[in-house]
Structure prediction request, 991 residues.
Amino acid sequence: MVPAWVVVIVSLAYLGLLFGIAHHGDRRAAAGRSLISSGVVYALSLAVYATSWTYYGSVGRAATRGLEFLTIYLGPALAMACSAVVLQKMIRVSKRYRITSLSDFAAARFGNSRLLGGLVALIAVVGTVPYIALQLKAVSSTFRVVSGGPVSTAGVPPYADTALYVALVLALFAILFGTGHLDATERHEGMVAAIAFESVVKLVAFLAAGMYVTFGIFGGFADLFDRAAAAQVATEAVTIGGYGNWFWLIVLSAFAVLLLPRQFQIGVVENVDERHVRTASWLFPLYLLVINVFVLPIALAGLITLGPAVSPDTYVLALQQHSALALLVFIGGLSAATGMVIVETIALSTMVSNSLVMPLLLRPSTRGGADLAARGDLGRLVLRIRRVTILVVLLLGFGFFRISGDALGLVDMGLVSFAAVAQFAPALLGGLWWKGATRNGALAGLVAGIVLWAYTLLLPELAKTGWVPGSIVRDGPFGVALLRPQELFGLSGAGAVGNGVFWSLLVNVVLFVGVSLAGRRTPAETGHAALFVDIDRRTPGPGTRFYRGSVPVARLRDLLARFVGAEAATALVAGHGSRRSASLPDEAEAEPELVRQVETALTGAVGPAAARALVASVADEEPLGMAEVVELVGEAQHLRELDRLKDEFVATVTHELRTPLTSIRAFTEILRDNPDLPAEERGRYLEIMATETERLTRMVNQVLDLARLESGNAEWRLTSVDLGSVIDEAATATAQLFTDKRVELDVDVPAEPAVTEADRDGVMQVLLNLLSNAAKVSPSPGGRVRITLRTDDGTARIDVADDGPGVPPPDRELIFDRFRRGGAGGTGLGLAISRRIIEQFGGTLHVSDCGGDGRGATFTVGLPVPARRR
Amino acid sequence: MARILICDDEPNIVVSLEFLMRRQGHEVRVAGDGDAALAAVADFDPDLVLLDLMLPGRDGYEVCQALRADRNRTKILMLTAKGREAEITKGLAVGADDYVTKPFGTQDLVARVQRLLGAGP
Prediction:
């Protein structure tokens, strides 16, 4: 036993050390020499996942349920090892759009839905407060164990409870290092450094405890297991009870490692370099493995020497007989608890301020919102909201722990929290890959999931505290057994947790997918879906998609200044001006790009919903129009390069498609309204309709071809292609066309093969396009087209020469642009597609005239011909 | 019975317009571009021009302007593939009497032609 005052002093010294590390980390960050820019530190800070639940609760779980405790680490280990992709995508999206919390992530994905963001924030708070309560409980009860006091808090007045003071110190820490400044990236380097340090402390302390128990109290693993077998305590611990639970626990914890507020904060928001994820993908699972090595030995040792009279959750500590070691183990537990509480409260404070408080305060419909938006010191207001949130959340946690007393087990309550955040998985993870997901789908899934969660998982826990009559859990409400929360609709065998997770996630997913499929997406939803799902296909930078309105530069700058300070705001606006090589007068109307940048900067500070509302409050916006929607759909189909020329492209596509449609419609109606037409005339009109339909089909195919080529999604099968044989085949395929036009086609291919690495069908498509163009432009009858192949110095050169009107020099590049027609009909896309295809194989395509007299055009394909090994 | 000039560069659309106008008993002449259209107006003196806006060379607006500059009594019905407000406004501003957007409904087109012809000079 250690005197209580010693424990207090050592604990305070430890917390003081944390303050020092965090302060140092912040100073280094400010000086530009980051303390945390390393994959190892990132992985260690991710280990905030291991809380006092791991530290004390795993042993408790192992002593009562056997190996099942492992599932909570298998899930995250698998998730991190296998799905670094998921984490990377979340990081990429969050960094690009300055997303700083889970609730903002949800809101932004579904068209800046405030309702969804608010709901996520609310669920996060409700789901995590009990979890925070557990950490305080662990600190409080282990404090009494180490200092020799009674284990139960019963009879201890709240003000005399260590947990209250721990909560207050942690609140101070979170406020100092989590809400010190309002920053667009919302990163807290000092806090992360302290958390990584805590991960080392808890690991070292736990390993020390395990080694002492295994090798100090017992004579090594063999001795320990032998004596456990002899005492017959091992039966339970080494049987793997309730397989039904295993699967669900692994699933749950795999989601939790991504979606718990603190994991999102550390894993996504605080990530400084995406490459660190790769280190974490092996180091984090390794950490979890190592910290669990001694769980089973300690559990068995506890069962042998202490027996069930001592709470298994305190075995780790209760087994230590040396006071110094006991103190170290207590500090390790303290570090596990404080790390979790600090990060969790900071994450929750961002959510509550960004998604609940600010959107309410800034509602544009209220007079108060407008007044507030006009206030000068909004940045300080945001910080104050966050500080109050941190304090309130911690006090709620303390209150929950005091009221629930000893009824809640560490692991049980932790699992209930896990299951709450797992409800985010369908909408958030699904929404990262599925563009069809809608806001209503996400809302429906989330609401239904959380209601079932409350019924099947929270209610039974509350029944343990006596707040809810136990009969509801035992016999079902009104005695209806089918509705028993833990065996809903007669589902048994999955265990209580498995039952709850199964039903809540099932209904969540079904509603999410079903409602999404059944409903229509709004333009904003469509746009945001593409922004998230296609994050890797999009180039960052210009092009605002959601802003149509007008606002003077000065108003925008003043708005930003209220959050990030006048200096930063002026710098951002001025930087925008200089890039356009012109300074922006205050009264000038802000370009959409500047508005977007300001909104992004604000998003970092107050979240997307509030940022949107703030920008809307100073700008007179018009609703999203059809042109933007067409543009968005184009984006979604990966027509990335077409962004720049979007207006022209949309206009031209519509025009080109309408031309054949016009003929088809006219003749359809003519045939309908004139049933008495002579057969010959009917035949002629039907022939036109067939031709125009073909043309329409060809155009649609070409638009799709071009889209695939430009997005890099075209699939090519590269083989050795003999160009001579492709030319012969293309000539044969177009022979009829030339005969019909009475144009002569000369083919001049040498006997020596010219072999290039390319997709044969791709080369064929290009040659067919060039030959049919040549046939079209040549004089009919009597024209002459010549296709020749020559190989010279590693390059094969195919010339297609016609004797048509030729291409004037200024147009010789333009004709390879989309929809710049060479003058003689056609859809205008063929040459653009041809050039892109040839470029895929490392070749070139250009046009010149025949022999310099300006008559006729020669299209030349150049393709590399690697030297062949003899 | 009226003289109608069809000015469009898409042969198949021209075929359909020719049929529709002849069916109404009108006399029809065809021009494939803006210059040909102006020449045909001088020579043929049509009562109405069906005028496509997107023409090679001199476009529909220019043809319109040229006709109106001569204080010509010919009615002009423009055919526009875009149906955009700006184009229609511009077309009407340079002197067109009415417009249809492509793809047009044949009955609507015929009704508009008849209405313009009936309105008199």
Observations:
- Chain B has a mean pLDDT of 86.
